Amino acid sequence: MMACLAKALVLSATFASVTLAHFEHAHLLPDPAIIGYQTVPLGTSYDNVPLTITGQLPAYLNGTLYRGAPGQWPDGWWLDSLITLNAFKFDGPQNKVSFSMKYNQDDAYNYSAHRSVDPLTPVPRPGHDGIPHFANASWPTGVAFHQVQGQLIGTTGVSNGNAVDSDTLDPLELPFKFEDSIGAPYLAPTHVAMMPDGTVLHHVVSGPQSEGADDAYKVTSIRRGSRTRETVADINKPEASSWFGKASYQHMTSATDEFYIMLEAPCYYPNKTTPIGTVDWTDWGWNFLESTHVRLVDRNTGKSTTYPVSHNTFAIHHINAFKDESTNSIVLDVIQSFPSFLPCSTAFKSLTLNNSINNWQSNAKGLMYSTPLRLTMPLDSPGSKVTPVLIGSGKGMEFPTIRYDELNGKPYQWAYGTYLQGKASAYYDALVKLNVNSGNQTVWGIPGHYVGEPIFVADPAGTEEDDGVVMTNVLDSINNKTYLVVLDAVTMKEVARTSSTPRVMPLGYHGIYYNRKMN
Q: Per DSSP, what are the bridge partners of residue 27?
C-alpha cells in the first residue's frame, strides 16, 4: 500500500523527532500508499537477484527471510489474493543479500494463470464435517509460515498448507500431506503455535459450512520430526463463545508448556461455502449479547478452562503467552484489532480493494485503534473474570513479533511491531520496539516509507533478549520501490539496507527467518 505523487523530504527519525508537518502535504493527496496495490503479472519470478548493501550486515545472518505478499486480487477483496512468495537470502560474512520471488502454485493461481479445469467450486462431501472441497485442494498460502519435519509450510485460514522448496520456492507438496486420519480440509487459524522444542500446536474447526454438523474444535500437536497430528482435545459445541455452540473465528492462538490458549470473541465464520481462494466477507456473524472468553486447553489432559473477559476483545494477532510463576497465572498479550463496540462482521465488510484505496484516510484512522493488551488468568481462580490491561500508552501497533524461536510461550520483555506515526499516515510507516513490562517504546520510521512485519534474528553471541537485529521489507512511496532494512534491535537504529527489489512488493502478510531446520 504505497506511493506519494509528489517528492517529499525523506527523514529517518524516531517518533519523537517526527512532526505533523511532515504529513500535512500527504494528507491532501490521493492515497499515498496506492502503489502497494500494484498487481504483479502472473508468471513473474526472480531467482537470486543480487541486491546492493548500504551498511554492514552482521556476520551471523546466513539464513533466509521469507515473506508472503499479495500479487493479484481476482475478486476485489484485499485478503482474497493470489500470493507471491518472496525470499531474501543472506550471506552475512560477505555482506551480500539476494532476492527471489515466485507465485504460490496453488489451485487458485493455476486456474487464474492457465484457465485449466475449474478445481475451485465447492463439492458435496457427505459425511465430511469440514469445508466442502476435495481433500487434496490447495489454497493460496504464504499468509504465514512455519516448519513441519524441517519443510517450509505456507498457510492461510484452512488446514491445508503447502510445502515449498526453501531454496527455489518451487512447490513440493500442495497440499502438505499429514500422516494421520484427521482428514481435510477444515477451517483453521492461519498461524500455528510453534514451540521452542519444535512441537507444532494448532486446531481445526468443523461444523461451519457443513450441513447438519455441530461446530467443534480439534486441538492437535505434531511432535518434532513427525508429520502426524495427535489429538490434544476435542471440544464440541463450544458454548463459551456462543449460546448455540458456534465456533469462534481465530486467526492466531498462543501456547505455553502447559496450555493451548484461545481468545474466543463472539465472531463467527460465514456459513456460505465459497470457491478456493475466496471468503464470503459479507456474511460473518457476531453476537452483541455474548462476551469474549479466554480458553486454556490443558495440553496433557485436554481439559478446557474458560475465563470471561470484562469487555469484548477481538484480536487478530497475539504477541505471546507465558506462565507467571510468582502469581501462578497464565499471561496472554494480544493486539486488540478494533474497539470493543465494533463487531467483526462490520469491520470485515470494509476489506475491499476499492475501499482500501478510496477511503484510505478513514481506514488509517481505524488502524490507530489497534492496541496492545495484557490478560492475566489466575490458575488458582479458574473461571474468574479477566480485565484486559493496556500495555504502555501506544496505539497503532500491529503485526507483533518477538524473539519467537526461543521465547514463544516463555516470559519475555520485548515485542516488535508495525506502527502508525500519526493520523495522517496512510499505512504503517514505522517499526516499534515495545517493553511489555514497562510500556516504554522506541520507534524507527521514515515518512512515506511503509513497513512490513518486523522479524527478529538473535545474535548467537548475545547475552540479552534483544541482542540481535530486526528486519523487514519497506515500501518507499516517494521513489516507488521496495527495499529491505536491518535495524539493531537494541537501539532500533539502521545498520544496513538493500537496494530495491526488481519490482515493488505489495505490503500485506507475515514473514519468518530460518537458517536451520527447527523440527
A: none
